[in-house]
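seq as requested:
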Amino acid sequence: MKENLPPDRVAGSLLLAYGVLGVAAIAHHPVVSQRAPADFVKAIVAVGPMDGFVHGSLIVLMALLYFALLRYARRRGMQSGLVLGGLVAASTGVSALTGAALIDGFFGPEFGSRLAMGNQAAIGAGIQVMVAAALAIQILSKLGFVATATSIVLWSIDLLDRESAHVMLGALGLVTQGLGLIFLLTISSTLTPHTIVPLFAAQALWYAANGALMVRGRL
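struct tokens:
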């Protein structure tokens, strides 16, 4: 860790904003519960505008988050294996979550709107594509959360130095993301908006605390 670095108010503010706005966006994730194929397609189309807004916002926020994390990694020192490994994991996570958001927020509603103009046979065949898309969303989302949790764990280990504020941030990351990894890898078989919110919020808390320290020049 380099000493006497000036405050990075841009990156710190972005991390703080992500901590607040990201949770607000994910909390408004639309949920479709209809089971009958025709009703399911109609529901997908109905929530399409909100779905696009939520996931589009998340994509923008994740891009800004990645920019801030790049600056964070540079401050901590790219020569460190923990810092570099965390950046690789974060890159993987942001890419996977962006892919999931594109499918969920844009492909699903657009494909659904085209299905809605077809007959029952077309809807029946199209549902299989929707099922495949849902599976892709699950895989990408789980990879994304596992990778971002791993990045926070690695960076948290790096933070266990002599600075008390760093140690507290590191401990926060190790506890919350360690539990998150256990949940993702051993307990959770299917992610839903209800299970994603606490995972997302725990990561957002760490990012926000990190951002506060960066703004104050303590990280």
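The CA atoms of residues 104 and 134 lie 8 Å apart.
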